[in-house]
Every structure is written in C-alpha cells, then in structure tokens.
C-alpha cells in the first residue's frame, strides 16, 4: 500500500465516520467501566460494612458478593457489545472503504511449470 492509498483511506467519509464512532464508543465504554470499577473499590474502602451486609435476614450471601458478580458480568457484557459493533457496523464501514477505493488485494499471476 502506498502513501497515496493511505491518504485516500484517511480522507474517505466512511473511514472518518468509523474512526469517530469507534472513538466515541471506546471513550464511553472506558468511562462506564472506570465508574463501575472505582465505585466498587471506593465502596469497599469507605463503607466495608455495607459489603458485609447479608442480602436478606438469615442469608449468608452478602451485598458485596452480588456487587462483585455484577462487575464481572458488566465487563463481559461491555466486551460483547464492543465485539458485536466491531464485527458488524465497523466491518461494514471498512468493506465500504475498500470497495469504494478498489483496494481489494490483487492475486498474483499463476505461474505454470509446464514448458
């Protein structure tokens, strides 16, 4: 790929759209993840008795267990959403750029060994 092709890709509207959407999604997911993680850590540090509180009277499962499980599932769900978007919408935009700029890989010519 030469410099001219790279410039064409960078200036293509679909590439710019994809770049913008990926940035916004990445920033949003990063902020959400940090809020969830830090709220967990801050709550443990500032109010540990809350985490030790049983969910219901006579139960041994505490609020801290549920909050910890939530953090794990939240991370899995956020990752799954990003992968879904990347393999769907972002791949479609990538294919559009490749198609519009005719950047499909050329196959090398077949060389025959027959004399």
From TrEMBL:
- Per the record, the domain of life is Bacteria
What is the protein's name according to its record? DUF485 domain-containing protein
Q: Name one Pfam family in it.
A: DUF485
Keyword Transmembrane helix recorded: yes
Naming one, the record's GO cellular component terms include: plasma membrane
Q: Does the keyword Transmembrane helix apply?
A: yes
Keywords assigned by UniProt, alphabetized: Membrane, Transmembrane, Transmembrane helix
| TM helices/strands, residue ranges | 25-45, 65-84
């Amino acid at each position: 790929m030469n410099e001219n092709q790279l410039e064409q890709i960078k200036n293509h509207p679909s590439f710019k759209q994809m770049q913008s959407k990926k940035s916004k999604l990445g920033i949003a997911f990063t902020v959400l993840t940090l809020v969830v993680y830090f709220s967990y850590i801050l709550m443990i540090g500032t109010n540990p008795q809350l985490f030790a509180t049983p969910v219901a009277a006579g139960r041994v499962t505490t609020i801290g267990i549920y909050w910890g499980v939530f953090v794990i599932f939240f991370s899995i769900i956020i990752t799954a959403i990003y992968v879904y978007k990347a393999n769907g919408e972002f791949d479609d935009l990538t294919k559009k750029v490749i198609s519009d700029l005719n950047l499909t890989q050329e196959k090398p010519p077949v060389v025959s060994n027959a004399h």
